[in-house]
Design goal:
This protein is an all-alpha fold. It has eight helices and no strands. The protein has a domain of 77 residues: Cytochrome Bc1 Complex, Chain D, domain 2. 56% of the residues lie in helices and 0% in strands. It comes from Pseudomonas leptonychotis.
């Protein structure tokens, strides 16, 4: 029974020690380590990107590898049937700008589907970067 009485008196004491509307003088001060932790957390939060990075290689595997193959060589049955471009050739990479690749992604030349309405601009740009990463010497 003394435990119940102690718990009640402790909570009553705590309730009385906090004012209803805290003023500057009565508001509890944060310790130096708590302030540093708070500042560090806010700095980390501010350094995070506003949105997650787009995974270009994953998008390539999902949308392009069926015809262009994982390595970009277009040595798949679908690639052969639809005359898919070998994206890994250095000569092709040299002759096509990033805008050319982006246009192909957006418009879908030949049998390739258009991705202008299916992928966001960030995803399309990530695909351009992924295609550039397929270059073989």
């Amino acid at each position: 029974m003394s435990n119940t009485k102690t718990a009640r008196s402790t909570s009553a004491t705590l309730a009385r020690s906090w004012p209803v509307s805290p003023s500057r003088e009565t508001w509890p001060m944060l310790s130096k380590s708590a302030l540093l932790s708070l500042l560090g957390g806010l700095t980390l939060l501010a350094s995070l990107p506003m949105r997650a990075e787009v995974d270009g290689p994953q998008l390539y595997r999902q949308h392009c590898a069926k015809c262009h193959a994982e390595d970009g060589r277009a040595n798949t049955l679908r690639g052969w049937l639809y005359f898919a471009q070998n994206l890994s050739q250095a000569k092709w990479q040299d002759n096509n700008s990033d805008n050319d690749i982006l246009d192909a992604i957006q418009e879908g030349p030949g049998a390739m589907p258009s991705y202008a309405d299916k992928l966001s601009e960030a995803e399309q740009l990530a695909l351009v970067k992924a295609v550039r990463g397929l270059r073989k010497p």
